[in-house]
Amino acid sequence: TFDQIELYHNSSLSIYNRYGTKITEFTNYQNNWDGKIKGKLLPTGIYYYVLNLNEPRNQLDLIKGYFTILY
Questions:
Q1: Residue 2 CB neighbours (<10 A)
Q2: What are the angstrom distances between the C-alpha of 7 and each of 11, 37, 40, 48?
Q3: Which of 35, 50, 64, 71 is deepest in the core (most CB within 10 A)?
Q4: pTM value > 0.90
């Protein structure tokens, strides 16, 4: 989850698989993704994200990172 994401109404979140393929994208992201794509949980693995705050007044515009899904 991202702290204070509700302050960034124009934010977008993109999720990529380990091969760099975008698997989903959200606009006005509000920490509400449940880890599913089309109703199915993502497989175990490492995924990457790019959070674009789309806020010109903010010095930090892109937040990048990764997360691991384990079952």
A1: 15
A2: 9, 25, 29, 23
A3: 50
A4: no
User: What long-range pairs does 7-11 form, CB within 8 A, spacing at least 24?
Assistant: 8/53, 8/54, 8/55, 8/58, 10/53, 10/54, 10/55, 11/51, 11/52, 11/53, 11/54, 11/55
Q: Which residues of the chain have pLDDT under 50?
A: none
The reported pLDDT for the residue numbered 25 is 96
Which residue in 66, 27, 70, 29 sits closest to 49, CA to CA? Answer: 66
